[in-house]
């Protein structure tokens, strides 16, 4: 990401309708946006719609971007607001039994079939645990540990205090650790 243009260049490109700039943003940010949206909504398809709606909102509103935060933070705020609204609507209309049924496939790790199977099980367990966390914990752990955002950015995106972000992240990580410890105890350790 060292060759990524600075915000003023990207904003100018978006405002002028430069398709290459938009394609660059799609390539760089959409995967992370999809992962974060998935922490708010019940299905992968719904998360994809949230990301699409977010990009539409960004294109429509880029003229109002004032640069008080980074462009990425601004886009992710739009995503979080869109995903929250969608998630709230879904919680009123989707049966509880259908929530969390879909799981994305990850890349196969090296280490032979046993290692690949174990890593796949662990990855699925982590995704399952993260999927059961309260929404704010899910959002914080997704942004921090899966997307690599810094704590200041997470606080700005989610409109939370640094202390709240630390507590949410600690609780989320503790839940994941506890489930992993129980899993490894059940199979005889790593």
Low-pLDDT stretches are 93-110
Mean pLDDT: 81
Structural class: mainly alpha
Largest sheet: none
SSE string, helices as H and strands as E? HHHHHHHH
Terminal-residue CA separation? 34 Å
Number of strands: 0
What is the approximate shape?
elongated
Helix content: over 70%
Number of H- or I-type helical stretches: 8
Radius of gyration (Å): 18 Å
Beta-strand percentage range: under 5%
How would you describe this structure to a colleague?
With 190 residues, the protein is mostly helical. The protein is 73% helix and 0% strand. The protein is built from eight helices and no strands. Helix 2 crosses helix 3, helix 3 crosses helix 4 and helix 4 crosses helix 7. It starts with 6 loop residues before the first helix and ends with a helix.
Write a compact overview of the structure shown:
The protein is mostly helical.
Features:
190 residues, mainly alpha, 8 helices, elongated
Layout of strands and helices, then pairs:
Layout: H1 7-16, H2 19-38, H3 44-61, H4 71-93, H5 112-132, H6 135-146, H7 151-158, H8 162-187
Helix pairs in contact: 2-3, 2-4, 3-4, 4-7, 5-8, 6-8, 7-8
